Amino acid sequence: QVQLEESGGGMVQPGGSLRLFCTASGRTLSRYAMGWFRQAPGKERVFVAGIDWSGRSAIYADSVKGRFAISRDNANNTVSLQMNRLERDDTAVYYCATPQHPWGLATMRPQTYAYWGQGTRVTVSS
């Protein structure tokens, strides 16, 4: 059974940084594409960042390009999302997700991801 768990959320002032982590049980993450999504209060869940199984290709939502970076730590079976220059609009619950099949590219479509974590809350506020 695949289980994902996010951590690292919290409250931060505008302009600050946070690093989110996604760890897995029941799956070797290095074989799978990974995605980060977020859902703000009253809004739909949207794509934030994704990385292919090899770690060589990453994609980002326009709203976070240049501020966020997704990366892998295969030794710890973890994928992280470094978030810099945080803005109030980044406030949301952040979710990591992984698809059913290995060796693929990340996509922006949530329908392509089969397994999701429970989310970690990020609040950007002064």
What is the quaternary state of this protein? Answer: single chain
Shape: globular
Q: Helicity, in percent?
A: under 10%
Write down how many β-strands occur, each being a DSSP E stretch of 2 or more residues: 11
Element-by-element helix/strand order: EEEEEEEEEEE
| Poorly predicted residue ranges | none
**Gyration radius over CA:** 13 Å
User: N- to C-terminal separation?
Assistant: 40 Å
Profile the largest sheet: 7 strands, mixed
Strand content: over 45%
Treating each run of at least 4 consecutive H or I residues as one helix, how many helices? 0
Compute the average pLDDT: 96
- By secondary-structure content and strand pairing, the structural class works out as mainly beta
How would you describe the overall organization of this protein?
This protein is mainly β. The protein has strands at 3-7, 10-12, 18-25, 34-39, 45-51, 58-60, 68-73, 78-83, 92-98, 115-116, 120-124. Helix content is 0%, strand content 46%. The strands form two sheets. Strands 2, 4, 5, 6, 9, 10 and 11 form a seven-stranded mixed β-sheet that branches. A four-stranded antiparallel β-sheet has the order 1-3-8-7, with no helix packed on it. A hairpin with a 6-residue loop joins strand 5 and strand 6 (58-60). The radius of gyration is 13 Å and the shape is globular. It starts with a strand and ends with a strand.
